[in-house]
Amino acid sequence: MVFVVLTAPALGVIADRMPIKKKLLKWYTVAGIAFTALMGAAPYFGSNGYIVLAVMFTIGTIGFTGGNVIYYSFMPYLGTREDQDKVSTWGYMYGFMGGSMLLIFHLIILMGPFNWDTNFKLATIFVTSALWWWGFGALMFKWTPEPEIHSDMEWKGVMDATKVAYGQVIKTAIEIRKFKVLAFFLIAYLLFYDGVNTIASMASAFGESVLRLNPSMNIMLLLTVNVVAIPMTFVFGKLAEKKGTKFALMLALLIYCAVAVAAAGFAPLELEGEEDAERYDFQFEWNEDTGLYEMTTLYDRGYEGWIAEDSEGDAVFRDGFQEHFPETDYSVEDAGASTLGAGLIVCLFILVVVVLLGGGVKWVQEKEMGLMGVFAAFLLVGVGIFGASFLADQATVDEEEVKAITEADALALVAAFESTDDHRFSIIVVGGNVSGSEVGATHPTMVDQGGPVDWWASTMRSMVWAPLGISVSLQWIILGLFVGCAMGSAGAQARSMFSQLTPKTRTSEFFGFFGFLGKSAAMIGTALYAIASTTFDSRVALLSITVVILAGTYLTSKVDIEEGIRVAQEEDARNEAQGMET
């Protein structure tokens, strides 16, 4: 991230003065594809897997974000200024369509009837993501021409190019007053892009910590957003054509703010005892055959999956109840053959597979067979993955151990309910001669915990969620529906608006600043969310980010697009005239 922030503006300057946009994009793409695929090898490194994954992810992110800066700079050359809304809208639409298709495929891999071990499934997900990137990226390099450069700069070495590039970046920063409208929009963009991306990136953490959602609901949220965004991005594109880019962008941002405010009011419905037993974190049910109370846990995470072994936050729960639970086991499972050597072998194998399958896909593309070619490319990848699966370990199904407690332990557990409720969990005992339930004071269903805006969640639950019987999972899906309406539309119209305000002869340079601000904003927004959630709570943090989006929306309303376009056209005319003279 820091690498892209520091290099994007300078690389943009070079790309505007030398015909190397496609070359730069190709190198970023190669890095992104290679290290996306290599992330699939991380599970095979055993205990070092997280370190390997972090390294691969970091380098892959450089390829993706750095490439995006150059990729965006092609936009002004793909149509007139009047067509930028259409170009950006269709780009986002196809992006969401592709993302939805790939996500559905990955869900099938994870949950389908494949007798593959988890490591191979994860590797397949990363490898197919890389191949998807390769396949559709190759079409861009094949069909999109290198933009014409009016002012060529001779290559005199890395040091000279670096000196010229950063010199121009400093010069542009100094003379930014020439582009007042563009600079003003960049400030607005910094604010609303910061907010939009922070909320998107923190959604899963909010869902798990505040609402205690099933982790699979985050996948459903992502899929819902992608699917809904396909038609809604098109709708907002048409709206931009009729009402203007700024109007469509502001409407999308206001919808996003309204959704964020509503999300701050999301709350699980109250637990209703035995009729709600499956929603409790720990459920003990009497088994007449064994004469024991068998334990099941929410989302099948097990006791160890919910209660940290030695964290201070769960100390009260451990001290008050753990002695009455089945015996715990926090030992780490053996990683088996997953070692450094095995991981390196898998890395090499993945690279070979990607090169062979990617090369095959490229060969099919060169034949220009239309839909038959698309089918052939997918079939080739499918056969390749299926063949590779024979080299992987096959999954084994072990009989699940049933954990249970005696009636005496159940009685002691229920008696312990009276001793404390200063924890974040819920327990219920049903059947037999013992019954009782406990909901901790900081459990997600206990909405009013003294926070500044807890009243909002309480009001929404009592006035909307409970009367309509809308569970927290359904609330999450509703969130996805509305975020899908706004997120892609906001991104498409922001990119279109920036493209219209940017001099065509300096696209890479200014899109470098665009990328610089986008990556900087990502760090600022996350820090702001962390500070607000630590000082107050997650609901306040969510609303504080909403205020940032509103501030950016207000500044966007003050942007004079016509004046910005006029200045950009004058700059183009001046640069083109200078290029002809040289």
Automatic annotation (TrEMBL):
SUPFAM superfamilies attached to this UniProt entry: MFS general substrate transporter
Q: Which domain of life is it from?
A: Archaea
Q: How does it sit in the membrane?
A: Multi-pass membrane protein
User: Where does the UniProt annotation locate this protein?
Assistant: Endomembrane system
Q: Which UniProt keywords apply?
A: Membrane, Transmembrane, Transmembrane helix, Transport
Q: Which Gene3D superfamilies match?
A: MFS general substrate transporter like domains
Q: Does the keyword Mitochondrion apply?
A: no
Q: Could you tell me what this protein is called?
A: Major facilitator permease superfamily protein (UMF1)
Q: What is the lineage of its organism?
A: Archaea, Methanobacteriati, Methanobacteriota, environmental samples
